[in-house]
């Protein structure tokens, strides 16, 4: 793990307003994630974990403060620039795999690389190598309907990594899996430890949190060391 920060949040705040009141979800939060670091963020339901992840990924706009990814402030980019930066510098894995039913595992994983401009052969070679590393060498031509829940989530992880991002953001990546299948996904993730890519995992699962380099708790709009 390097000391170089690949993801930073400074004075990050998010407030929602309805007709009668303001709801402060995040309140001047600070975060720095180093290259290659594996970080778990845990917290009670409704604490704002998914909101935080959306802000870190540039999928939502903060009320205050800013987020920087690989040294570039997301708030200073146009929407098009932000989309391109996300494609090249960030990966996402959600509770649901979000695989398109008409694409094979190989095609799904290669897709972000193709969107980023990589030639088809190069994109599929990267995708194949990742799928093999995650134990899916025999599933390259399978579509989602022919894959188990754990296999679909491993495909989603490979897809998040294909562009060699600075950081992968994960939102409850084993939340829809039974314990045995979740353990298979965690074991597959452990094979990725030799990368410079950082992982930020929002989870309520202690089995995931305990495998991370560092654990933080989100409470009262701020992050605290566990």
Question: What do you see in this structure?
Answer:
This protein has helices at 49-56, 79-89, 105-115, 120-133, 149-161, 179-190, 206-209; strands at 5-17, 22-34, 38-42, 64-69, 72-73, 90-93, 167-171, 198-202, 214-219, 222-225. With 226 residues, the protein is of the alpha/beta class. It has a single domain (5-225), classed as 3-Layer(aba) Sandwich (Rossmann fold). Strand 4 and strand 5 (72-73) form a beta hairpin. Helix 3 packs across helix 4 (120-133), helix 3 packs parallel to helix 5 (149-161) and helix 5 runs parallel beside helix 6 (179-190).
Notable characteristics:
alpha/beta, 32% helix, 7 helices, Rossmann fold, 226 residues, single chain
In short, what is this structure?
With 226 residues, the chain is α/β, with parallel strands linked by helices. The protein has seven helices and ten strands.
C-alpha-based Rg, rounded:
17 Å
Q: For the largest beta sheet, what order do the strands appear in spatially?
A: 6-7-8-3-9-10
What is the name of the CATH architecture? Answer: 3-Layer(aba) Sandwich
Helical coverage, percent range:
25-40%
Question: Strands, helices and their partners?
Answer:
Blueprint lengths: L4 E13 L4 E13 L3 E5 L6 H8 L7 E6 L2 E2 L5 H11 E4 L11 H11 L4 H14 L15 H13 L5 E5 L7 H12 L7 E5 L3 H4 L4 E6 L2 E4 L1
Parallel strand pairs: 3-8, 3-9, 6-7, 7-8
Antiparallel strand pairs: 1-2, 1-4, 4-5, 9-10
Helix pairs in contact: 3-4, 3-5, 5-6
